[in-house]
Amino acid sequence: MASRIPHSSSYPQAVDQVHRALTSEQYWRDRIAEVGGEGASLGHVTVGKGTVDVEMTQSVPAAHLPAIVTKIRPGDLIITRTETWGPLDGTSAEGTFTARVDGVPATLSGTMSLAADGAGTALTLDGKVEVKLPLIGGKIESVIADQVTELLDNENEFTARWLNEHV
């Protein structure tokens, strides 16, 4: 059984400005440097005409993990994430994300959308996390969902600051 991860944020900038930021290589380099955590890195950032495909690696230190997680996977969790954004179609754009955790049968995936919201922009994420472990998978899903929500909050705070400084 998968656990859902709904998340949303809003920005005062117009949707085309937010989309332009999310599809720029500099935004991704700045984001991973500021909120990626220790040892975070970009695998690639491929920018097309109004599109982007990003792969990044991040880790969650073992000290920040509950015992239920460290029992099945000792040490830091290494997470490889992808994020893609399609072109702006009028006043909206669609994206996807995935994440996999090394050494744990866990996957995260979902969709994202940008849409005009008055003069600003709404970013909506609909994700799910699934851990394929009998009996304890649901508990670990809950931990991962909480960690992902905290990370998304940090990334959205960064994005708001980045937009204010660069747009």
TrEMBL record:
Q: Name one Pfam family in it.
A: DUF2505
InterPro entries named among the record's database cross-references? DUF2505
Q: Which domain of life is it from?
A: Bacteria
| This protein's name | DUF2505 domain-containing protein
**Source organism per UniProt:** Rhodococcus spelaei
